[in-house]
């Protein structure tokens, strides 16, 4: 069950190397153009992936605009303080239950999208992102990977002013400005990875490495997060989960993102996001911190 699924200019496509193959075309209409719909038939996706060499590529990835692998999930969850070194740098106790908030799905954008900043306190958070395949409720930890369609790279961009301006703090809006959820470049099925629970993760601002860790340092691993969430909410096909960021975020040293910065976020086996940062205006709370 191995595949790489991309969203090329709004159309589902399978990826092989630098080539992409329009899913509706190569499946003779068995699949439509929607990536979330494609995740309801993972076996079919894998079979088509095995036979890609028999089809003519639709085009080259570097010639097209790649959108977020899932453009309109029902829900997008995120886990805070999920790496020990990040909880420590934030001066917080190691959590005993996952600290979950949501990113509004309208913030999700493609792997090379411009991040539009409205204050001088916008920060990066490199994260492994999980996308749900088979829906589920009350999912047991040892069955959780059966519900994962794929993994990709994500950035949980955060306006720290808005994130912490209300008392008590409420994370959703500060992390949900339009463009604050770059993800991609495509969805990789877990079995494409040699060790899906141990992946190097790195974030660079321009040429400077700011975050470097391994996803085996997650406090709550993917099965734990899925099991915990699904006791509360039904997880649906296409739902997105940002799993938390390692230490090294900008706020700790006052190294926020600036106009013109280039943010590169990579995870072993999943690819790289490259996002230009643009300071477009001030939001109303910008002078309050
Ligand atoms: Zn985060």
Give an overview in words:
The mean pLDDT is 96. It is globular, with a radius of gyration of 18 Å. With 289 residues, the protein is of the alpha+beta class. It folds into two domains: 4-66, no CATH class; 76-279, Fumarylacetoacetate hydrolase, domain 2. Strand 15 and strand 16 (208-214) form a beta hairpin. The protein contains seven helices and 19 strands. The protein has helices at residues 23-26, 35-38, 42-50, 84-89, 160-165, 171-174, 222-232; strands at 4-8, 11-16, 19-22, 59-60, 66-67, 76-80, 99-102, 108-109, 115-117, 122-123, 126-132, 148-155, 158-159, 181-188, 200-205, 208-214, 240-242, 262-267, 271-279. The N and C termini lie far apart (49 Å). The structure holds zinc ion. The site of zinc ion has 8 residues, from strand 6.
What are its keywords?
alpha+beta; Fumarylacetoacetate hydrolase, domain 2; twelve-stranded mixed β-sheet; five-stranded mixed β-sheet; 19 strands
Short characterization:
The protein is of the alpha+beta class. Helix content is 15%, strand content 31%.
| DSSP strand tally | 19
Shape: globular
Approximate helicity band? 10-25%
The structure class reads: alpha+beta
Number of domains: 2
> Which homologous superfamily in CATH is the superfamily of the largest domain?
Fumarylacetoacetase-like, C-terminal domain
The CATH topology of the largest domain: Fumarylacetoacetate hydrolase, domain 2
Radius of gyration: 18 Å
Small molecules (ligands, ions, cofactors) in the structure? zinc ion
**Strand portion:** 25-35%
Which regions contain 5 or more consecutive residues with pLDDT less than 50?
A: none
Total DSSP helices: 7
Give the N-terminus to C-terminus distance in angstroms. Answer: 49 Å
- Chain-averaged pLDDT: 96
Largest sheet: 12 strands, mixed
The CATH architecture term of the largest domain is Alpha-Beta Complex
CATH level 1 class label of the largest domain: Alpha Beta
Order of helices and strands: EEEHHHEEEHEEEEEEEHHEEEHEEE
